[in-house]
Design goal:
This protein is an alpha/beta fold and 267 residues long. The protein folds into 2 domains: 200 residues, 3-Layer(aba) Sandwich (Rossmann fold), CATH 3.40.50.300; 49 residues, no CATH class. The N terminus is likely disordered.
Length: 267
């Protein structure tokens, strides 16, 4: 009788294992569906963001390295009225004004996850294609995590696979308020979203990195060409605006590819 009982118990265990397996597969399917939906939404957001013409800065890294906290520390925790347009595009996109006065769009990408199930890798990577549309990629790591260098290497591998090799990258060790958060590499920026440490240096570095992708210009637009001023105003890159007898005088920052719009009107 004892042997039969053991068989019955073993059978019940196998049934539970099958149920667990089914549950895991169902969960993976649900996550894949969610990622596909996210990719679709991000594609729409990308088109809407492209219309703003602002340089895009993407925060990339593993989950729990403080990317969202860093974004809130840089842009402010609540969405201001002026930022509502961007808030409606995608809750992970925020307008950020750099020390030079240049307005950029800061994007918080989907966080990397360790030991991702094979079935999800492709779907997960597609949501990170966001980074391929950036002007600058900021790789964020947890300063106190012993695995930080390994995680950054994986991050680079994924980015290279997404055709991001030519996009400038900055490296940030966040959570520098934690013990053991040290780096002797001058190319690594140390920050703390919690205390605000290093944020000014990060903003200056973004300005420097974007300097060859943008230009400060002075233009005088005839009154029948005022439409050209709209993109500059919408991007938040107008620094001086004066109505003169012979037209509208503007000083501001534009992306390199937009320079041709102002040919013939440069001062």
């Amino acid at each position: 009788g004892g042997g039969g009982g053991g068989g019955a118990r073993r059978g019940a265990g196998e049934t539970k294992l099958e149920l667990d397996r089914r549950h895991v597969h169902a969960r993976i399917d649900a996550l894949a569906e969610k990622l596909a939906e996210m990719e679709k939404r991000r594609g729409e957001s990308r088109k809407a963001r492209a219309k703003t013409g602002m340089p895009v800065v993407s925060l990339v890294g593993y989950t729990n390295v403080g990317k969202s906290s860093l974004m809130n520390a840089l842009c402010g925790p609540s969405v201001a009225e002026a930022d509502m347009l961007f808030a409606t595009l995608d809750p992970t996109s925020r307008k950020l004004v750099l020390p030079s006065g240049m307005a950029v769009l800061l994007v918080d990408t989907v966080g990397f996850v360790s030991r991702l199930p094979h079935n999800l890798v492709e779907a997960f990577q597609s949501t990170l294609e966001e980074a391929a549309w950036s002007d600058v990629i900021v790789r964020v790591a947890d300063a106190g995590d012993a695995q930080r260098e390994e995680q950054l290497a994986v991050t680079d591998e994924v980015l290279d696979g997404l055709d991001c090799a030519d996009i400038p990258r900055l490296t940030v060790y966040n959570k520098c308020d934690k013990p053991g958060a040290l780096s002797f590499d001058p190319d690594i920026l140390l920050t703390s979203a919690k205390t605000g440490y290093g944020l000014e240096a990060l903003l200056k570095k973004l300005d420097e990195t974007l300097s060859d992708r943008v230009h400060t210009i002075r233009v005088l637009l005839p009154y029948d060409k005022l439409g050209l001023a709209a993109p500059m105003r919408e991007r938040g890159s107008v620094q001086v605006e004066e109505y003169r007898e012979d037209g509208l005088y503007l000083e501001g920052i534009v992306k390199t590819e937009d320079l041709h719009c102002f040919e013939g009107y440069l001062c």
